[in-house]
Protein backbone atom coordinates (compact mmCIF):
# COMPACT_ATOMS: atom_id res chain seq x y z
CA UNK A 1 0.00 0.00 0.00
CA UNK A 2 1.29 3.45 -0.92
CA UNK A 3 0.12 7.03 -0.54
CA UNK A 4 -0.52 9.47 -3.37
CA UNK A 5 -1.90 13.00 -3.52
CA UNK A 6 -4.55 14.49 -5.78
CA UNK A 7 -4.74 18.06 -7.14
CA UNK A 8 -6.52 19.32 -4.04
CA UNK A 9 -3.59 18.17 -1.90
CA UNK A 10 -5.55 15.33 -0.24
CA UNK A 11 -3.58 12.15 0.42
CA UNK A 12 -5.15 8.73 -0.07
CA UNK A 13 -4.12 5.07 -0.07
CA UNK A 14 -3.57 3.12 -3.30
CA UNK A 15 -2.95 -0.55 -3.96
CA UNK A 16 0.36 -1.53 -5.55
CA UNK A 17 1.38 -4.54 -7.67
CA UNK A 18 4.22 -6.54 -6.16
CA UNK A 19 5.83 -7.61 -9.44
CA UNK A 20 5.97 -4.00 -10.64
CA UNK A 21 7.52 -2.88 -7.36
CA UNK A 22 10.15 -5.61 -7.66
CA UNK A 23 10.97 -4.62 -11.24
CA UNK A 24 11.36 -1.00 -10.13
CA UNK A 25 13.73 -2.09 -7.35
CA UNK A 26 15.86 -3.91 -9.92
CA UNK A 27 16.04 -0.82 -12.13
CA UNK A 28 16.91 1.40 -9.18
CA UNK A 29 19.64 -1.01 -8.06
CA UNK A 30 21.13 -1.13 -11.55
CA UNK A 31 21.45 2.66 -11.44
CA UNK A 32 24.54 1.96 -9.31
CA UNK A 33 26.12 -0.09 -12.11
CA UNK A 34 26.07 -3.61 -13.61
CA UNK A 35 25.17 -6.50 -11.31
CA UNK A 36 24.95 -10.27 -11.48
CA UNK A 37 21.80 -12.32 -10.93
CA UNK A 38 23.18 -13.56 -7.60
CA UNK A 39 23.89 -10.02 -6.41
CA UNK A 40 20.45 -8.74 -7.38
CA UNK A 41 18.78 -11.72 -5.73
CA UNK A 42 20.78 -11.30 -2.53
CA UNK A 43 20.62 -7.52 -2.20
CA UNK A 44 16.93 -7.19 -3.09
CA UNK A 45 15.75 -10.26 -1.18
CA UNK A 46 14.35 -11.97 -4.26
CA UNK A 47 14.41 -15.66 -5.16
CA UNK A 48 16.72 -16.21 -8.13
CA UNK A 49 13.92 -17.54 -10.30
CA UNK A 50 11.79 -14.47 -9.54
CA UNK A 51 14.65 -12.07 -10.27
CA UNK A 52 15.49 -13.95 -13.48
CA UNK A 53 11.91 -13.74 -14.73
CA UNK A 54 11.72 -10.01 -14.04
CA UNK A 55 15.05 -9.44 -15.74
CA UNK A 56 13.98 -11.33 -18.85
CA UNK A 57 10.86 -9.18 -19.09
CA UNK A 58 12.89 -5.99 -18.71
CA UNK A 59 15.38 -7.24 -21.32
CA UNK A 60 12.55 -7.98 -23.77
CA UNK A 61 11.48 -4.33 -23.57
CA UNK A 62 15.07 -2.98 -23.61
CA UNK A 63 14.99 -1.55 -20.09
CA UNK A 64 17.80 -3.94 -19.09
CA UNK A 65 20.68 -5.34 -21.13
CA UNK A 66 22.75 -8.44 -20.32
CA UNK A 67 26.46 -8.15 -21.03
CA UNK A 68 27.69 -10.97 -23.26
CA UNK A 69 31.18 -11.33 -21.75
CA UNK A 70 30.32 -11.13 -18.04
CA UNK A 71 26.66 -12.15 -17.96
CA UNK A 72 25.94 -9.20 -15.70
CA UNK A 73 22.92 -6.98 -16.13
CA UNK A 74 22.90 -3.21 -16.71
CA UNK A 75 20.35 -0.57 -17.62
CA UNK A 76 19.13 -0.53 -21.22
CA UNK A 77 18.69 2.40 -23.59
CA UNK A 78 14.93 2.63 -23.00
CA UNK A 79 15.67 4.00 -19.51
CA UNK A 80 17.49 6.91 -21.12
CA UNK A 81 14.50 7.53 -23.39
CA UNK A 82 12.20 7.69 -20.37
CA UNK A 83 14.50 10.13 -18.60
CA UNK A 84 14.65 12.37 -21.65
CA UNK A 85 10.87 12.37 -22.00
CA UNK A 86 10.49 13.26 -18.32
CA UNK A 87 12.89 16.18 -18.57
CA UNK A 88 11.16 17.44 -21.71
CA UNK A 89 7.67 17.45 -20.24
CA UNK A 90 8.29 18.05 -16.54
CA UNK A 91 6.37 21.10 -15.30
CA UNK A 92 7.46 22.34 -11.89
CA UNK A 93 4.40 24.57 -11.46
CA UNK A 94 1.99 21.74 -12.19
CA UNK A 95 3.75 19.34 -9.83
CA UNK A 96 3.99 21.90 -7.02
CA UNK A 97 0.49 23.38 -7.31
CA UNK A 98 -1.42 21.01 -4.97
CA UNK A 99 1.35 21.24 -2.38
CA UNK A 100 1.22 25.04 -2.39
CA UNK A 101 -2.48 24.89 -1.61
CA UNK A 102 -1.84 22.34 1.12
CA UNK A 103 0.65 24.68 2.82
CA UNK A 104 -1.75 27.64 2.65
CA UNK A 105 -4.52 25.50 4.13
CA UNK A 106 -2.23 24.27 6.90
CA UNK A 107 -0.54 27.53 7.92
CA UNK A 108 -2.78 30.34 6.66
CA UNK A 109 0.09 32.32 5.12
CA UNK A 110 1.15 33.22 1.59
CA UNK A 111 3.04 30.50 -0.28
CA UNK A 112 5.46 31.08 -3.16
CA UNK A 113 7.17 28.96 -5.80
CA UNK A 114 10.35 30.43 -7.29
CA UNK A 115 13.13 29.58 -9.71
CA UNK A 116 16.54 31.18 -10.11
CA UNK A 117 17.42 33.12 -13.23
CA UNK A 118 20.66 35.02 -13.79
CA UNK A 119 21.49 34.99 -10.08
CA UNK A 120 18.10 36.30 -8.94
CA UNK A 121 14.96 34.55 -7.73
CA UNK A 122 11.82 34.87 -9.85
CA UNK A 123 8.32 34.22 -8.50
CA UNK A 124 6.58 31.77 -10.85
CA UNK A 125 3.54 30.87 -8.76
CA UNK A 126 1.86 31.96 -5.53
CA UNK A 127 -1.23 31.44 -3.43
CA UNK A 128 -2.20 34.32 -1.17
CA UNK A 129 -2.97 34.04 2.51
CA UNK A 130 -6.70 34.24 3.27
CA UNK A 131 -5.93 36.79 5.99
CA UNK A 132 -6.43 40.50 5.38
CA UNK A 133 -2.88 41.42 6.45
CA UNK A 134 -0.50 39.47 4.23
CA UNK A 135 2.63 39.68 2.12
CA UNK A 136 2.25 41.67 -1.10
CA UNK A 137 3.91 39.99 -4.07
CA UNK A 138 3.34 39.21 -7.74
CA UNK A 139 4.27 36.48 -10.19
CA UNK A 140 7.25 37.54 -12.27
CA UNK A 141 8.82 39.63 -9.50
CA UNK A 142 12.60 39.37 -9.21
CA UNK A 143 14.51 39.62 -5.93
CA UNK A 144 18.11 39.15 -4.78
CA UNK A 145 19.08 35.67 -3.64
CA UNK A 146 21.29 36.48 -0.65
CA UNK A 147 18.57 38.09 1.47
CA UNK A 148 15.50 35.99 0.67
CA UNK A 149 14.58 32.64 2.16
CA UNK A 150 13.97 31.08 -1.25
CA UNK A 151 17.17 32.54 -2.67
CA UNK A 152 19.36 31.24 0.13
CA UNK A 153 17.64 27.84 -0.10
CA UNK A 154 18.72 27.55 -3.73
CA UNK A 155 22.19 28.99 -3.18
CA UNK A 156 22.85 26.43 -0.45
CA UNK A 157 22.65 23.57 -2.95
CA UNK A 158 24.52 25.18 -5.82
CA UNK A 159 28.24 24.46 -6.35
CA UNK A 160 30.32 26.96 -4.39
CA UNK A 161 31.93 28.36 -7.54
CA UNK A 162 28.47 29.13 -8.91
CA UNK A 163 27.52 30.93 -5.70
CA UNK A 164 30.74 32.93 -5.81
CA UNK A 165 30.03 33.93 -9.41
CA UNK A 166 26.55 35.13 -8.44
CA UNK A 167 27.92 37.16 -5.52
CA UNK A 168 30.60 38.67 -7.73
CA UNK A 169 27.99 39.76 -10.26
CA UNK A 170 25.17 40.79 -7.91
CA UNK A 171 27.02 41.78 -4.77
CA UNK A 172 25.53 41.57 -1.26
CA UNK A 173 23.60 44.84 -0.93
CA UNK A 174 21.97 45.72 2.38
CA UNK A 175 18.20 46.13 2.61
CA UNK A 176 17.64 46.01 6.38
CA UNK A 177 19.72 45.77 9.53
CA UNK A 178 19.43 41.96 9.27
CA UNK A 179 20.71 41.58 5.69
CA UNK A 180 23.77 39.37 5.16
CA UNK A 181 26.46 41.54 3.57
CA UNK A 182 29.71 39.53 3.74
CA UNK A 183 30.85 36.31 2.09
CA UNK A 184 31.79 34.83 5.49
CA UNK A 185 28.26 35.35 6.83
CA UNK A 186 26.65 33.99 3.68
CA UNK A 187 28.91 30.93 3.56
CA UNK A 188 28.09 30.10 7.19
CA UNK A 189 24.37 30.59 6.55
CA UNK A 190 24.39 28.30 3.51
CA UNK A 191 26.20 25.61 5.51
CA UNK A 192 23.48 25.82 8.18
CA UNK A 193 20.77 25.52 5.52
CA UNK A 194 22.39 22.38 4.11
CA UNK A 195 22.52 20.94 7.62
CA UNK A 196 18.89 21.74 8.50
CA UNK A 197 17.25 21.52 5.06
CA UNK A 198 15.39 24.82 5.44
CA UNK A 199 16.15 28.52 5.06
CA UNK A 200 14.86 31.48 7.07
CA UNK A 201 14.41 35.13 6.19
CA UNK A 202 14.04 37.05 9.42
CA UNK A 203 13.33 40.52 8.04
CA UNK A 204 16.43 40.45 5.81
CA UNK A 205 14.89 42.03 2.70
CA UNK A 206 11.96 43.88 4.23
CA UNK A 207 11.26 44.94 7.79
CA UNK A 208 8.21 43.27 9.25
CA UNK A 209 8.36 40.29 6.85
CA UNK A 210 9.47 36.78 7.75
CA UNK A 211 9.75 33.65 5.63
CA UNK A 212 10.59 29.94 5.81
CA UNK A 213 11.78 28.28 2.60
CA UNK A 214 13.06 24.93 1.33
CA UNK A 215 14.90 23.96 -1.86
CA UNK A 216 13.40 21.86 -4.64
CA UNK A 217 15.93 19.42 -6.03
CA UNK A 218 15.69 17.92 -9.50
CA UNK A 219 17.37 15.33 -11.65
CA UNK A 220 21.12 15.25 -11.11
CA UNK A 221 20.69 16.56 -7.55
CA UNK A 222 20.61 20.16 -8.79
CA UNK A 223 18.30 22.80 -7.26
CA UNK A 224 15.47 23.63 -9.67
CA UNK A 225 13.65 26.10 -7.42
CA UNK A 226 12.32 26.67 -3.91
CA UNK A 227 9.04 27.06 -2.05
CA UNK A 228 8.32 29.34 0.87
CA UNK A 229 5.72 30.31 3.43
CA UNK A 230 5.78 34.06 4.18
CA UNK A 231 3.91 36.39 6.47
CA UNK A 232 4.10 39.41 8.76
CA UNK A 233 6.56 39.14 11.63
CA UNK A 234 3.70 39.68 14.09
CA UNK A 235 2.26 36.27 13.11
CA UNK A 236 5.46 34.50 12.06
CA UNK A 237 6.74 33.76 15.55
CA UNK A 238 9.71 31.46 16.08
CA UNK A 239 7.31 28.74 17.25
CA UNK A 240 5.18 29.06 14.11
CA UNK A 241 8.22 29.16 11.84
CA UNK A 242 9.46 25.94 13.44
CA UNK A 243 6.13 24.23 12.71
CA UNK A 244 6.19 25.49 9.14
CA UNK A 245 9.75 24.23 8.66
CA UNK A 246 8.72 20.66 9.47
CA UNK A 247 5.86 20.50 6.99
CA UNK A 248 7.79 22.51 4.39
CA UNK A 249 10.70 20.05 4.38
CA UNK A 250 8.33 17.13 3.87
CA UNK A 251 6.48 18.85 1.03
CA UNK A 252 9.71 19.97 -0.63
CA UNK A 253 11.03 16.42 -0.41
CA UNK A 254 7.92 15.04 -2.09
CA UNK A 255 8.06 17.59 -4.90
CA UNK A 256 11.78 16.95 -5.34
CA UNK A 257 11.21 13.24 -5.70
CA UNK A 258 8.66 13.92 -8.43
CA UNK A 259 11.23 16.15 -10.11
CA UNK A 260 13.66 13.23 -10.26
CA UNK A 261 15.79 13.83 -7.18
CA UNK A 262 17.16 11.18 -4.85
CA UNK A 263 16.14 12.71 -1.51
CA UNK A 264 14.69 11.69 1.82
CA UNK A 265 11.26 13.08 2.64
CA UNK A 266 12.36 14.56 5.96
CA UNK A 267 15.46 16.28 4.67
CA UNK A 268 18.14 16.39 2.04
CA UNK A 269 20.84 14.17 3.48
CA UNK A 270 21.39 12.32 0.19
CA UNK A 271 22.20 15.46 -1.76
Please describe what this structure looks like.
It is a single chain. Helices cover 43% and strands 21% of the residues. By secondary structure, it is α+β, with helices and mostly antiparallel strands. It folds into two domains: 18-87, Arc Repressor Mutant, subunit A (Orthogonal Bundle), CATH 1.10.10.10; 90-259, 2-Layer Sandwich (Beta-Lactamase), CATH 3.30.450.
Query: Uncertain runs with pLDDT below 50, 5 residues or more?
Result: 265-271
- Provide the domain count: 2
Task: State the shape.
Answer: elongated
Q: Estimate what percentage of residues fall within beta strands.
A: 15-25%
Question: In a few lines, what is going on in this structure?
Answer:
The chain has 271 residues and is α+β, with helices and mostly antiparallel strands.
Short descriptors:
single chain, 271 residues, alpha+beta, Arc Repressor Mutant, subunit A, Beta-Lactamase, 6-stranded antiparallel β-sheet, 9 helices, disordered C terminus, WH_DNA-bd_sf, HTH_MetabolicPath_Reg
What is the topology?
Elements: E1 2-5, E2 11-14, H1 18-30, H2 37-44, H3 48-60, E3 64-66, E4 73-75, H4 77-89, H5 92-107, E5 110-117, E6 120-127, E7 142-144, H6 149-155, H7 160-170, H8 183-196, E8 199-202, E9 209-217, E10 223-232, H9 238-258
Antiparallel strand pairs: 1-2, 3-4, 5-6, 5-10, 6-7, 8-9, 9-10
Helix pairs in contact: 1-3, 2-3, 5-9
